[in-house]
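Record 1 of the preview.
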Amino acid sequence: MVTFVVAVNNRKVFRDNFMSSPCLGTLQGPEVLVQEHFNSAAIAYNDALEKSSNDLVVFCHQDMILPENWITQLQEALSFLAKSDPNWGVLGCYGKTRDGRGWGYVYSSGRGIIGKPFVQPTPVQTLDEIVLIVRKSSGLRFDPSLPHFHFYGADICLRAASMGMRNYVISAFCVHNTVQTLVLPKEFYDGYEHVRRTWSHALPIQTTCVRMTRFGIPLRRRRLQEWYLRHVRRCEIGGKRIEDVQALVRTVKRLLERRPGLVDQPSQGETL
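->
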């Protein structure tokens, strides 16, 4: 059995997207914990871990759509890891290795399909927060001092690594019906600094959105790019959320039918 946890700040987005996920219909009475009115993702998710009736907990963004076969793909990955690495730390659907290679197989608004299906769970340094999977019994918890709703995926992956656990991307296709924000808020940079300070001994850290280094040069480049987008191009939003979710699902299905089969190579350099 599995517990799904979703931090919600927009009930309509949650209802139209995550709660419309076909995979939920394949389960008998799935436990879905809706976490609202928390000051940070870390506090919301730790609270949910205590509430969860199941050991396996899947944390999802409210604008995720999990296809019908998503649970089957998760189970296949878990069966593989039960033999190869039963002490795994965190699983996810998109992540990056320390040297910046991206692994995953997802659809993201404004980007289309990223990556291709791959054969087996692949070790990465950090995972994107769109989907994070942990076992309650592992003892892993989110950093309650991490502010806001950014970088908690990177942080818990680093926590797992510090406990001798490996983190993996699994080939479990999902749809992220998101608003692609090109210029990020102050909260993003607050989270960046918190994680960079906390894990300074582990630098460089490759997250799915920016590389953390001792002198912060990649972050400075990002800030310059944001300044250009805001003040020169006057463009702060990339892809927009699709309101007609069923139409989106049909579109993604058609795109998948044109895609090639299994691969064993990463999606080089791509970022959600």
